[in-house]
Every structure is written in C-alpha cells, then in structure tokens.
Amino acid sequence: MAEIKLGIVEARFADIVWENEPLTTKELVALCEKELNWKRTTTYTVLKKLCERGIFKTENSIVTSLISKKEFYAIQSENFVDETFAGSLPAFIAAFSSRKKPTAKELEEIKKMLDSFEEV
C-alpha cells in the first residue's frame, strides 16, 4: 500500500470526505470551497493524491473511502508505537501515564479491553 500518512491540510480534507461520504465530486468541491477556501483544481489535486495512496476512491464521480477514519487512525497509532517505542505497547503506556494519570473510568475501560483480548 502507498504511503498512509496525512499532512494537516490533507487530514482536514479527509475529515470532510469521511463525514459526508458518499458524495459527488461536485459536492466535495463545494464543501472544500466553503470549509477550506479551495478552488476546484486544488480539491481535485488533493483527492487524486489520496486516491493514489489508497485512502479514497472515485468511481462515476462518487467519492468514498477505502479506509475508514477509525482504521486510518488505528494504523497511525500502530506506526507511532512501532517507530517510537520499538513496538512495545507497555512502553507507550508507561510513557503516556507518567505525565497523565488515567482516570478510574479510563482504567475500567482498559481492563474491559484487556479482558476481551483474553477471551479470544
């Protein structure tokens, strides 16, 4: 798969697609003009780039995602842990929680997640 990263502006564009899909290219151009103050050509250029990366597709002038927003950010999280903490989730959690202690509610949610993994 092609590069699966987004710059800040590309992420804003992707959010527009994810929040409104499926949508026509004409609708996307109008949304990008309104939200990002883009010209039609800019919208088409960015759309083409993200289609080439395998994030979106355009078929019969209808834009849809190939990767959901949730899946995209899951991949980003995995890459971050791999690159920054040598793939160690415990090392990431230790670093994260050293400055921001999880709340009781967050700890309960994490315990439920871990329990669900053990059931598999």
Description:
This protein has 120 residues and is mainly alpha-helical. The protein has a domain at 8-69: Arc Repressor Mutant, subunit A (Orthogonal Bundle). It is 68% helix and 8% strand. The chain is built from six helices and three strands, in the order αβααββααα. β2 and β3 (62-65) form a beta hairpin. The longest helix is centred in the middle third of the chain and has 17 residues, at 69-85. The radius of gyration is 18 Å and the shape is elongated. The mean pLDDT is 92.
In a nutshell, what does this entry contain?
This protein has 120 residues and is mostly helical. It is 68% helix and 8% strand. It has a domain at 8-69: Orthogonal Bundle (Arc Repressor Mutant, subunit A).
